[in-house]
Each structure stands twice: as C-alpha cells, then as structure tokens.
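Comment thread on ticket #2218

A.B. wrote:
> Attaching the input chain for the structure job we discussed in standup.
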Amino acid sequence: MKVVILAGGLGTRLSEKTYKIPKPLIEIGNIPILIHIMKIYSYYGFNDFIICLGYKGYLIKKYFHHYCLYNSNMTIDFKSNEFKYHNNLSENWKVTLVDTGLNTFTAGRILKIKEYIDEDTFMLTYGDGVSNININELLHFHTDHKKIATCTAVQQASRFGKVKINEENFISDFNEKPINDNSWINGGFFVFNKEIFNYLDDDMLEKNVLPKLVEDKQLKAYKHKGFWKCMDTMSDKSQLEKMWIDNPKWKLDKKG
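C.D. wrote:
> Ran it. Output below, let me know if you need it in another format.
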C-alpha cells in the first residue's frame, strides 16, 4: 500500500531553517523529520512511499539519491575507483519523488500523484508531524467503516484544524481555525479510498475537500489518544530535540 507524504510547503514559520532547506529535511537528532515519519510507517511494514515535492524539492531528491552515503561508513579505493559501504543502514524502501509545484495547495498536490496510486486504498500524512500511532489499527478502523476517508484526530491545544465527532465516529464539523481548548484536532495520518480523487480540487485539502466529505458523511475519525507532535515552529523543533534525547515517544524499535 502506498504512503503519500506532503512535503512541498514553504515552512514559513521555520524560516530561519527553511531559507536553506525544505521543512521535511529539518533534523531532529541529526535525522530529517521526514525520515522519522517514514520509519513510523516502515515499522508496520509500509515501505512504498510517494513524496509530494514543492519548495526546494531538489534537495529532498538529492538526500534520497545519497541516502546510503549519508547513513553508512565507507571505504574509497582511489586507485581502483571503488566504493565499499560498511554497516549499510539503507531501508527496505521504495521512494517515488514527484514534483507537485512550488505554490500548489495540498489537495492539488494529491491530485498530481493520482497516476501513482494503483490500489483502492492509500495512506497520507503531512511531512512535519510524528506520533506513536498504531498504523495497523488505523488501517483496520478505516477498512471496517467502509467510508471514503479517515482522519486521525488527536487531543492537543493547537492552532490546527479542529474536528467535531459524533457518537458513531462520523466527523460532523471541520473548523480550519479552532479555539485553543484541547478539543480534538486534525493530526494528519489519513487513510483514503481512491474515490477521494472525485473530491479533490486545486485548493486546500483542509478548506474544501474535508468539509465536502463531512457533508456526504464520508469522513470518519480515528481517535488517537497517544503521543502526537507537529514541528511547526522553532519552539516545536526545540521540544522535539529535547524529547529525542530524553524520551522519543514516536521512536519504534525494529521488529524481530
């Protein structure tokens, strides 16, 4: 199953970093947050990624092109011009990097990777949030309710899109500018059926598409009560750096 990651935004609230590199390459513990996110999915066996590029996307391409170089020790034999990698830490990943435009909005970016979605269901998240979410449970929840979309809802005082959830776990309202009151908010980590492409336009996923799904009763909420953190500001980055040293709640140990 494909995992789509939105990695094309300008990251203006982190401008002291993003004037040089795209936001998904900002490091937590010397590892780009994009890689932290991919390792969450990979832990559960999802290793086929589509990265939606935009701002400074060529640097993300460069990073993956040299991934082995960045993550392994190596010996260079200048006489024979041979390279040998030691303790190769490469992942069992397939990564498709797609230029989706510099100023494209989130729904438009998803539209531009439609040709790469060859199954009925795919997952999607933002390139700046980490969590200890159980991806298998999220997927099972989505499969069981048989609606077009699942949005992971988290409880945290935030400026992100607030969702209201009824007793049957349908999202009954989607508010782009919530009150900072510990309500359920949009935490990303979506699951979509391919019918989502009938709803997509060139605007924001959060502004037009999700409210339309709400109207059609096609958007359900997976309530995640564990750890979730978005890196939206330098303060967020500092907090994540401290967590990485003290207790990285989103870091999962490799299975067997």
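A.B. wrote:
> Thanks. Noting for the ticket: The chain has one domain: 2-246.
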